[in-house]
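Re: your question from the hallway

Yes, I did run it. Sequences:
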Amino acid sequence: MDMENKKVAVFRKEHFCAAHRLHNDAWDEQKNFAVFGKCNNPNYHGHNYELIVKLIGIPDKDTGFVADLKKLGELIREKVIRRFDHKNLNLDVEEFREKNPTVENITIVIYNLLKDYIEPDRELVIRLYETEKNFAEYPA
Amino acid sequence: MVYLTRIEHFNAAHKLFNPDWSKEKNEAIFGGCANENWHGHNYELWVTIKGKPDASTGYSIDARVLSKLVKEVVLDKVDHHNLNIDVDFMKGKMTTVENLAMSIWEQLRGGLPSGVSLHRIRLYETPRIFVEYFGE
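Structure:
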């Protein structure tokens, strides 16, 4: 089989534990509760987030790698996990000062934190699980 | 004797912080878990009861009865809440996974129908950390 120029996807999983709440400052208490329900709890709640970083590309001719997954793990820990793990996303992470830390928005923020460090001929896709049942993917 | 387990989930914020200690000492002992603005987890709760199946129903306990009890005395109080601030049965306690499992045992113990007893609380704080409590 011709293995030249075949695209492959590789994945690196990491995780972080964080508190958050969903709240829109422009709305009153009743509307926030009506829209966000228990996720609006003023004293926060939290999750074990599972992050899957996907890179798509043609394996390098010399190494056979789409990415050195150990280095990718280090990059994710440095740029994302170190800033999010055991933090309050609303209070401790500047990207969410003015933005609701929904799983959708966290996924986009993580993409933007990593994309400058990914080689241009690699396609980056972020999947983030908030619970086993709820997850988001970006770009969509 | 048959053992029946019901698995439930809840999401909560907490921090590990001993108010009798300085911020520095709390950080030295509890590390990132002491973050003053909280962090949080997806907890998985296993409630195991033991009993002999009833001759007429074949049930040791109606699993719906157990589910309703767990929801009323545990899940409604902890899910999407802050364990340190919002939960009456954790007031004055460190919100470690150990203490939480023991407190959940106390919440459930009195509410079970006759003929069954609580055997084990297993509580996962993350997929890789869990405790078990047998009431001993």
